[in-house]
Design goal:
There is one protein chain. The chain is mainly β. It contains two helices and 63 strands. The strands form 15 sheets. Strands 19, 20, 21, 22, 23, 24 and 25 form a seven-stranded antiparallel beta sheet that branches. The chain is elongated, with a radius of gyration of 35 Å. The protein starts with a strand and ends with a strand.
Length: about 750
């Protein structure tokens, strides 16, 4: 019987689960793989062996079990940094080199999964929910600072609801004592700023000649004179909170009379202002009166010490009076209420989401003033540029976990997602949160890819995406793991990253140390999974912008000798070359470009005791063991260009062969054998192929070129005739590649013979 030739022209179905191995009706099945280990699916169809990992250095703590988290600091288009967060420290890296900059942080090793980041140019805000918001500032390459963010005016909780509990200040400025009618203070309140709203009665001052005393005007003032007089009357003001008697006063109004005029005028102030009148009368009698209207005065006291549950001492910022008030407010962020869970920037506002005390609340700073959460009023109406507060109210209280700002602000909670529309400017009087999907999100940060967001569903076992759909006028998405459940079932994702260039790849670190990779180009309906393993455990991943590419860094926990060591390593960049020496296809790799050829290679402490492969001046040596941090090339050979590291294996396995129904029905369940495989390769060398892992034969290239140190990489079709031990009902093809050479498979043609 003549063999049937069938081509798999692409691999954009990615790695499929065993449960999908019978779904021959799916389009993804025809482009899928049963296994894709240490492989990357390209969005345009081919699959290639993943690049190696270049060794950068060790983390600060290497063998004590303290985890590390990596984070990008994206400063300029061509200048970004890698942040190494560990137990109570932060270190700065650039281009795989530790810059020698280390900062102390409040974050213990167990807190690192809570960290959320948002950045504006050279300033990054770091939220955790349990510590005050931290502010990381870059001033120069070697000059960084991490401080607690200080708010010009912080946000506050809702007004005190216990009307029987009042607070009375002992003074209006400077050091004051706050006396509460009930026990409300504790040592945890030290450092908090408490807000007091006090009703201030109207007051009047007058003069017949000379200067009156001053009054504090909170809203409306009025001046009126009586009598017949010649001279001038001035309304003067001073906007200083802690003004002095001889301080510079400015003239607001001047009225002149020659026995023929008495002014009567009123006006409003935009902020609290001291005012007075000054009369200079040359003849006649004048009585000038300045009055302030009643208003509600808002003042602040920063608590410095607590004497008892009912008394505290603090610094007052311009209180209205010494009267007791029931209208007082705790700060929204404090030791007692907790601190923000997450942050982002939206419509030129710094936005914070959720806290232990207010898990469903969103706070937005003043427009253009990121550290000011104050509210201003004009004619009794809150101004549009004031700070904004909104609550995401639902039947079940779900704490905010993450936020992502695109055209709209997407707020992810433990049980659902919300959007705040960006089609119109958000103001205190114009903000309408809208509930979207009800899946919930895990602790791992969502990843924005174009106009869509990819996130880990709550409990960490499903990866979903979401984006705006014009047909439904809502945000909808897809379960991206539906056909690849074997990769994530029973596992939890602990970190993720997105590298846009060159292939739009998302990286997900599983709790067991396996790395999942998702090739994601949704406008082409491409989402294809593979998985990566190494001689060790992947623990963290970060993508760092580097000009026209994204460099992907990982923390890998490896066993070196008897010690557990955490290494920071970087995936090698994509290469387009037919020279094998240009590729780094080894892990924890150390690269040498020597001025003079050497046979003894030192500086391999990160590989101590390991069996390594050595690619030197285009020649691949047999495995060697690193001893004393060095190796010696055999037979006195010397080399200049060397790549030394740990080998890893790529496995590609096709699912059951299928071509749809033939004249005699389905091909499933029929005995068959793959007699020939035609591999369409690009810049490849090495590998084994067969029907399964137990029946492999070497893919033959030109061994003579290898022996002479020539370029060995092949592009084009490579035909392999397979032995007949592969008779079964599956018709699979299994590729095994362990040598440190590149391997890119663009298509595979199987010649299949049916057996009776």
């Amino acid at each position: 019987m003549e063999p049937y030739y069938a081509i798999q022209p692409a691999f954009t179905g990615g790695e499929l689960s065993e449960d999908v191995s019978n779904r021959v009706d799916l389009d993804k099945y025809q482009l899928g793989l049963k296994q894709a280990q240490n492989a990357i699916i390209r969005p345009y169809g081919s699959v290639h062996k993943r690049p190696g990992l270049i060794y950068c250095g060790k983390t600060k703590y290497v063998g004590d079990g303290k985890i590390v988290r990596l984070q990008e600091f994206d400063f300029l288009t061509d200048l970004s940094y890698l942040l190494e967060f560990g137990d109570k420290y932060l270190r700065i890296w650039r281009d795989g080199i530790y810059l020698g900059v280390e900062l102390a942080t409040p974050f213990a090793s167990g807190d690192l999964s809570r960290l959320r980041f948002t950045q504006s140019v050279d300033v990054m805000y770091i939220c955790s929910g349990i510590y005050p918001v931290q502010k990381l500032s870059r001033y120069a390459e070697d000059d960084w600072e991490l401080t607690e963010a200080e708010w010009e005016t912080p946000p506050f909780c809702d007004v005190n609801k216990d009307t029987a509990c009042t607070i009375q200040p002992s003074g209006k400025t400077g050091t004051v004592t706050l006396t509460a009618s009930k026990g409300i203070f504790s040592s945890d309140n030290i450092g908090d700023t408490i807000k007091l709203d006090q009703y201030v009665d109207g007051r009047s001052v007058e003069t017949t000649n000379g200067t009156s005393s001053e009054i504090l005007v909170g809203k409306t003032w009025k001046v009126i004179t009586h009598g017949t007089w010649t001279g001038t009357v001035q309304v003067q003001y001073c906007g200083e909170k802690n003004h002095l008697p001889n301080q510079d006063w400015k003239t607001l109004r001047t009225y002149t009379s020659s026995d023929d005029y008495n002014p009567s005028e009123s006006g409003d102030v935009e902020e609290y202002t001291y005012m007075r009148i000054h009369a200079s009368i040359s003849s006649g009698t004048c009585k000038a009166n300045l009055s302030s209207y009643p208003y509600t005065h808002t003042g602040y006291v920063k608590i410095r010490s607590v004497n008892s549950t009912t008394t505290a001492v603090g610094t007052a910022d311009w209180l209205g009076s010494t009267d007791a008030t029931e209208d007082w407010y705790w700060p929204a962020w404090s030791k007692t209420n907790g601190y923000p869970y997450c942050a982002t920037f939206f419509q030129d506002r710094l936005v914070f989401g959720g806290s232990p005390g207010e898990p469903q609340r969103v706070w937005m700073s003043r427009s253009g003033d990121y550290e000011d959460f104050s509210i201003d009023k004009e004619s009794g109406t809150v101004t549009d540029d004031s700070a904004v507060t909104a609550d995401l109210l639902s039947r079940k209280a779900c704490a905010i976990n993450h936020m992502d700002a695109g055209n709209d602000l997407i707020v992810f909670t433990e049980g659902n997602s919300w959007t705040i529309s960006g089609s119109e400017t958000v103001t205190p009087s114009s903000i309408t949160p809208r509930n979207q999907e009800n899946y919930g999100v895990s602790d791992i940060a969502p990843l924005r890819v174009g106009n869509r967001v990819v996130y880990i569903q709550r409990r960490g076992s499903v990866v979903r995406d979401t984006g705006y759909d014009y047909n439904t006028d809502s945000y909808v998405g897809t379960d991206l793991t539906l056909l690849s459940k074997d990769l994530i079932n029973g596992q939890t994702i602990v970190d993720d990253a997105f590298a846009q260039e060159p292939d739009s790849l998302l990286y997900f670190v599983r709790a067991d140390g396996v790395m999942l990779v998702l090739t994601y180009v949704m406008d082409q309906k491409v989402y294809a999974w593979s998985h990566l393993v190494t001689d060790g455990i992947f623990e963290s991943v970060a993508s760092v912008n580097c000009g026209n590419r994204d460099d992907v860094y990982v923390v890998v926990r490896r066993t070196i000798g008897t010690q557990q060591v955490r290494c920071i390593e970087r995936f090698d960049r994509d290469r387009v070359s037919d020279n094998q020496q240009d590729y780094i296809m080894l892990d924890s790799a150390v690269i040498y470009d020597l001025d003079q050829a050497a046979s003894v290679i030192t500086g391999l402490e990160n590989l101590e005791g390991k069996t390594v492969r050595v690619l030197a001046d285009q020649y691949l040596y047999d495995p060697m063991t690193v001893q004393g941090g060095k190796i010696t090339l055999p037979d006195g050979v010397s080399a200049k260009r060397l790549v030394i590291g740990l080998p890893y294996t790529m496995i590609l396995e096709q699912p059951n062969w299928d071509v749809g129904n033939m004249q005699s029905g389905t091909v499933q369940g029929r005995n068959k054998t793959v007699t020939k495989a035609i591999l369409r390769l690009k810049n490849s060398f090495g590998g084994w192929i067969g029907p399964d892992a137990d029946h492999l034969q070497e893919i033959i290239y030109d061994p003579q070129r290898m022996e002479t140190g020539e370029k060995v990489l092949t592009t084009g079709d490579r035909t392999v005739t397979l032995h007949e031990k592969g008779v079964n009902t599956e018709g699979r093809t299994y590729i095994y590649h362990e040598t440190p050479y590149p391997f890119t498979l663009s298509a595979i043609i199987r010649a299949v013979t049916f057996l009776a």
